Amino acid sequence: MSKRRVVKTYSNTRAKGEKYTIEGNRFFVKVELVSIKVIEEADKIGRTSEIYLECGKSRMKANRIPTFGEIHLDRNEVFKPRGGITLYTAFIEKEGGGTVEIPFKVREQDIGKDDTLVNTTLSVNLGQSLEYLAFEENGLKVKISVSANKTKY
Fold first, then answer.
1. Measured between alpha carbons, how far is 82 from 92 in angstroms, rounded to an integer?
2. Residue 46 maps to which CATH number?
3. Which pLDDT belongs to residue 121?
4. Cα–Cα distance measured from residue 109 to residue 50, given in angstroms and rounded to the nearest whole number
5. CB atoms within 10 A of CB 24
6. Considering the domain boundaries, does residue 142 fall inside one?
7. Alpha carbon separation from 4 to 1, 7, 8, 10, 23 (Å, rounded)
8. Whose CA is closest to 150, among 98, 102, 110?
9. Residue 112 lies inside a defined structural domain of this protein
10. Tally of domains in the chain
11. CA gap 78, 51 in Å, rounded
12. Does the residue 117 lie in any domain?
C-alpha cells in the first residue's frame, strides 16, 4: 500500500491593508482562581477544611466550584491550580463601559451549616486588563484574577 499525501492550502481572503476594528460595546468578563491558603484551621472539629467557592449567580442558584465535592486543605497548606480555575465568564453589553458587580463567596462545608469565610462583591471595570485581587479573612487567603476585555464577538 502506498501512502497518499494530503496538502492543505489556505488562502488570504482579506483585501490588502484591510483592518478590523472592534465595534460595539461588548465585553468578555472572566474571573479565575489563582490560589487558596489556609492560615488557621476553619473547621471547629479539627479536621481538614472542606472549601468550595461560589461566584456569580444563575437563575436557579449560585455557581458552585467544584460542582461536586470540596477542596480539602490543612493548616498552612496552599491549593494552587496550574493555569487557574475559571470561576465565572460572561459576555456583557453596556454603552460606554462602566462596572459590573459579581457576588463572590468562599464557604467551608460543615455537617450542620456551611460557614461563609469570604463574602464580597467584585466590582469589575469594563475594558480593564488582567488585575489580581487578594482577600484575607477568617484565617483564609484567596487570590483571584479578574479581566474584562472588549471583544468583537
1. 27
2. 2.60.40.150
3. 93
4. 5
5. 11
6. yes
7. 9, 10, 13, 20, 45
8. 98
9. yes
10. 1
11. 12
12. yes
Walk along the chain (153 residues) and give the pLDDT tens digit of each residue: 667 777 777 776 767 777 766 667 889 999 999 999 988 865 566 667 888 888 887 665 667 888 788 888 888 889 899 888 899 999 988 887 789 999 999 888 877 777 888 899 999 998 888 999 999 988 889 999 999 988 877
pTM of the model: 0.76
Q: Rg of the chain over CA atoms, in angstroms?
A: 21
* Domain of 99, in residue numbers: 26-150
Question: Count of CB atoms within 10 A of residue 136's CB?
Answer: 12
Cell numbers standing for residue 107: 464557604
Q: Is residue 63 part of a domain?
A: yes
Residue with cell 489556505: 10
